[in-house]
Every structure is written in structure tokens, then in C-alpha cells.
Design brief:
This protein is an alpha/beta fold. It has two domains: 2-62, Helicase, Ruva Protein, domain 3 (Orthogonal Bundle), CATH 1.10.8.10; 89-272, Rossmann fold, CATH 3.40.50. The protein has helices at residues 2-11, 15-30, 34-39, 47-61, 66-70, 94-103, 121-129, 142-155, 213-222, 241-251, and strands at residues 72-75, 78-81, 111-115, 134-139, 160-164, 175-180, 226-235, 254-260, 266-272. The strands form two sheets. The protein has a seven-stranded mixed sheet, sandwiched between helices. It has a two-stranded antiparallel ribbon with strand order 1-2. Helix 6 packs parallel to helix 7 (121-129). The longest helix is centred in the first third of the chain and has 16 residues, at 15-30. It is elongated.
């Protein structure tokens, strides 16, 4: 097994990142964890498993995201099923969850909506941390909604109500909190042709020529769906913080704030519906 891993690490370019990815892929093929690999370095790998493993190494060498290869990505310590039908949950999106949780008191039985839920990552994180809340999640892609449904059934059965449709359209009633991680990369942005983005669903990354198109619609449509004093929070690009704040101010939101990710970049902007409009 040791020689097999060395060959795989070399194929992935060497270094700590290559070693980690080779370990994860072999553990996935064998149905074990990395600790088992470390404890059994002399174990033989059967030829069929070797073939599957090296095929995965080749796909990873071609740039395919490791999350799609193993079918799982951890988010908020939750093991989420992911497929090429959904955006891969990213660490910076945990700031969106943190923003919502700071506003929602423990034990609050509020109605919460997650728009464009994808794998269900944000909705499930909130549902697990605030179990008294009534959490709804919408998704336009039927394929993505199926992935979210599987995650809900596995992680928090019955705790998130899923709705097929665009943003707020399938929802009824008022919500105390609305969150969203919408597409915000403008068409033509070079980042869309780099890294994992090359393999992710385009509709989950870019709303069109203007990266703020989806955010504008959500901010506008959320106002009549929020309770007075309710919170809207959404993720955006690192260079869109000021534009996001200006948009919320123009619509009449109050208590507008932007949170920074771990690299100190604007990432999540929030605002509250006035008590009276």
C-alpha cells in the first residue's frame, strides 16, 4: 500500500496537499478512514481496488474536485453528500451560518428560510443549531433538491422543509430570518475557468453579466416576506461589500453590517427590515 500511495502522491504533484488527497481517495476506495491507512501501511490493495484508485487519481490530476470524487464534503462539522449537481460547500460560507445564529436566540421558534439551498448545507447547519426553528429551503434545480433531500434525511430527518422553485417564489407566510448564498460571479470572470469552478454547476456560480443580479432580486423580494425587524443575510464576492450595503440602504433596510471571512475579506452582508415601513 505504501508504494501505491507514493506513486499516487507523485502523480498529484507531491507535497502535503497531494499526500492528503491521495490518502483520502484511497480511504474512500477501501471504505476506511485515514487513521486505518496509517495503522496498516503494509496491507495489500487488491488489483480491482488499485485500478479504481488510480482512475480517481487520474481524474483528480485533471482537476476534478476531490469532493465530487469521494461524494462528501464536511460543512459545519456535518458530512454532506455532494454531486456535480450542487455547489461544493466552502468554509467561508460558514460565516453566513454564524451571522444567522448570532441573530437567532437559542430556543427561538422562528421561521427561517434558506434560498438556493444546493446541498442543504446552510439550512441544515441552522436547523441543527436551532432545533426549535421552522427551517424552509428553496432550490430551483430539481437535481440539486434531490441531493438536499438526501442530506436532510440522513442528517436531520424532518427538520428542513424543502421547496422546488426560484428564491422566495415557492414560500408562503413571513419569516424572521432569510439567508442566501446566491451566485455572485459575473459571467466572464476568469475565476469561473479555474480550479473547482470548472466542474461546478454554472447557475450556482454566476447570475449573468452582472454579479449582483441575484442579490438585487433577493434583497427586493425579501422585504415583504420578512417580519418587522427580521434579518436578511447573504454571501457575496470579496469586492461586493460596498455595493451590497448601498443596495440594502436604498431599499430601506436598517442595521446593515458586513462580516469578513478568515482572510479579512468582505463576505456576508446583512440588514434588518424596519419595524415600520
Amino acid at each position: 500500500m505504501g508504494q501505491l500511495l507514493e506513486e499516487a502522491r507523485h502523480s498529484l504533484g507531491g507535497g502535503p496537499a497531494a499526500a492528503l488527497e491521495a490518502d483520502l481517495l484511497l480511504a474512500h476506495v477501501l471504505g476506511v478512514n485515514r487513521a486505518w491507512l496509517f495503522a496498516n501501511p503494509a496491507r495489500d490493495v487488491t488489483p480491482p481496488n488499485q485500478q479504481v484508485f488510480m482512475e480517481l487519481i487520474a481524474r483528480r490530476s485533471a482537476g476534478e474536485p476531490i469532493a465530487y470524487l469521494v461524494g462528501v464534503r464536511e460543512f459545519w462539522s456535518l458530512p454532506l453528500r455532494v454531486t456535480p449537481d450542487v455547489l461544493i460547500p466552502r468554509p467561508e460560507t460558514e460565516l453566513l451560518v454564524e451571522t444567522a445564529l448570532r441573530f437567532i436566540p437559542p430556543g427561538a421558534a422562528w421561521r427561517v428560510a434558506d434560498l438556493g439551498t444546493g446541498s442543504g448545507a446552510v439550512a441544515l447547519a441552522i436547523a441543527c443549531e436551532r432545533p426549535a426553528c421552522e427551517v424552509h429551503a428553496t432550490e430551483l434545480s430539481a437535481a440539486a433538491l434531490a441531493v438536499a433531500a438526501r442530506n436532510v434525511d440522513t442528517i436531520a430527518p424532518g427538520r428542513v422543509q424543502l421547496h422546488h422553485g426560484s428564491w422566495l417564489e415557492p414560500l408562503q407566510g413571513l419569516f424572521r430570518v432569510i439567508v442566501a448564498n446566491p451566485p455572485y460571479v459575473a459571467t466572464g470572470d476568469p475565476h469561473l475557468a479555474e480550479g473547482d469552478c470548472r466542474f461546478e454547476p454554472g447557475l450556482a456560480l454566476s447570475p449573468g453579466p452582472d454579479g449582483l443580479e441575484a442579490i438585487r432580486r433577493i434583497a427586493r423580494d425579501a422585504l415583504p416576506c420578512l417580519e418587522p425587524g427580521g434579518l436578511l443575510a447573504f454571501e457575496h464576492g470579496y469586492d461586493q461589500g460596498e455595493s451590497a450595503r448601498q443596495l440594502l440602504r436604498a431599499l430601506g433596510y436598517r442595521h446593515i453590517e458586513t462580516g469578513q471571512d478568515l482572510e479579512g475579506r468582505d463576505r456576508v452582508t446583512s440588514g434588518r427590515k424596519p419595524e415600520q415601513m
